[in-house]
Structure to design on (244 residues):
């Protein structure tokens, strides 16, 4: 079954139940790659069922061979009541808005329960000892309060696909929060990603341990370096976000 939003097609198995599920995703970012690393770790360790793929007009020219078959740039996975979007590369820059809005609109229309987005916050903006900050839509404000962390300072902003998804969720009056662990700029930061994964485990019951994430830091850094070099060579330089 393919659902079309603008120029984005979301291919999902017909028998898949989505109503009431929690949606989780994160993207590549110059701030620690926290979102990408967290989603990569969740998918790798949960071994969830692949329930669909996302197709775009400017589809990135990459595939990978994993688990006896092809892995595509944008895949959807499901474990119990958790649905993860794993974007192995960033969408083409010209499609950031369409991609983010299409995914967010799909989440709202499929009656998911809530959305949890993972990014990174430049560690230079840390003012206290808290490991992360949060951002929330109005409908997700009470959910964000449960995490017990400060909200993002008003003078700081969210950038990129994460910001666009939050904007669409706000327009749809949908409960969405962004978990933003403090991370090092310009290099992969598995420890920052581990902060987000631990929150998902403790607060939402996602059965993923964080210790392997720290142990696999070198492997993760090497993989990310290869992906980004290939993407930059084929698609041009990545767009850099200021904070997330």
């Amino acid at each position: 079954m393919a659902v079309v939003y603008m120029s984005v097609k979301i291919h999902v198995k017909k028998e898949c139940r989505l109503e009431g599920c929690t949606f989780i995703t994160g993207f590549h970012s110059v701030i620690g790659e926290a979102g990408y690393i967290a989603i990569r770790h969740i998918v790798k360790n949960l071994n969830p069922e692949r329930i669909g793929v996302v197709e775009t007009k400017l589809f990135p020219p990459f595939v990978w061979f994993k688990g006896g078959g092809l892995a595509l740039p944008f895949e959807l996975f499901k474990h119990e009541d958790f649905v993860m979007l794993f974007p192995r590369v960033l969408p083409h820059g010209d499609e950031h808005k369409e991609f983010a809005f299409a995914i967010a609109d799909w989440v709202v229309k499929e009656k998911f329960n809530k959305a949890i987005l993972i990014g990174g916050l430049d560690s230079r903006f840390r003012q206290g000892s808290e490991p992360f900050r949060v951002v929330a839509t109005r409908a997700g404000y009470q959910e964000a309060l449960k995490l017990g962390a400060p909200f993002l300072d008003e003078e700081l902003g969210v950038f990129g696909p994460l910001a666009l998804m939050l904007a669409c969720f706000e327009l749809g009056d949908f409960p969405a929060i962004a978990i933003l662990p403090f991370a090092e700029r310009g290099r992969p930061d598995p420890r920052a990603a581990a902060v987000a994964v631990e929150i998902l485990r403790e607060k939402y019951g996602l059965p993923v341990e964080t210790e392997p994430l720290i142990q696999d830091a070198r492997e993760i850094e090497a993989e990310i370096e290869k992906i980004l070099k290939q993407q930059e060579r084929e698609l041009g330089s990545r767009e850099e976000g200021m904070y997330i």
Observations:
- Confidence is low (pLDDT under 50) at residues 237-243.
- The two ends are 33 Å apart (CA to CA).
- The longest strand covers residues 176-183.
